[in-house]
Specification:
about 180 residues; mainly alpha; 7 helices; elongated
Length: about 180
């Protein structure tokens, strides 16, 4: 016959296992809820009226090289221009989003579904600027400048290519790698 102390111990072990399982499931649920909240903040930032204006203003910039960008929009050539803060904040935003994606805090497919196309367009619009700023040596932004933005764009491009969806070249600067790839088959 089973002793009362054995039953008590089995109930205690079972209670512990149930509580631990509940705690783990609750933690996973909280993590998913936080991811969703984080992503909705990102979404709201880019798809409100201000975010849409920033996007179209960015695509409206006219330059085909880093030198032309610096000549038209650079701080020293045009100190009162609103373009520098616009470009800097967009690069920083997408770099931060890339860091979150790299650390698996966001799901790559969800990011693609919501903001993938926009990320690709902005990356290839600003690619020459980012790579130009990396190339300034000690006076530039450094070799790792906006690497997470580039990572994010690369991930979005992989998904788009896997889906067989073409890229709209008319938005891209002529010196962007994607424009060159599709213009010179």
């Amino acid at each position: 016959m089973i002793e009362l102390s054995t039953i008590r111990d089995l109930v205690a072990i079972a209670s512990f296992i149930i509580a631990l399982t509940y705690y783990i499931l609750n933690l996973q649920n909280q993590r998913e809820t936080r991811k969703t909240q984080l992503f909705m903040q990102i979404y709201q930032n880019k798809f409100n009226e201000e975010g849409m204006n920033r996007f179209w203003n960015m695509l409206g910039l006219q330059f085909d090289s880093f030198e032309e960008y610096m000549e038209k929009y650079g701080f020293f050539s045009n100190p009162g221009n609103d373009t520098l803060p616009l470009v800097s904040s967009e690069i920083a935003y997408f770099d931060g989003l890339g860091m979150l994606l790299k650390k698996k805090m966001l799901d790559v497919n969800t990011v693609y579904d919501i903001i993938g196309y926009r990320t690709i367009l902005i990356w290839f619009k600003l690619e020459v600027v980012v790579k130009g700023l990396r190339g300034f040596g000690d006076q530039g932004a450094g070799a790792d400048y906006a690497k997470n933005f580039e990572y994010l764009a690369d991930e979005m491009i992989k998904i788009r290519r896997n889906k067989g969806i073409k890229f709209p070249l008319f938005y891209l600067t002529k010196s962007s790698t994607l424009h060159q790839e599709y213009s010179n088959p």
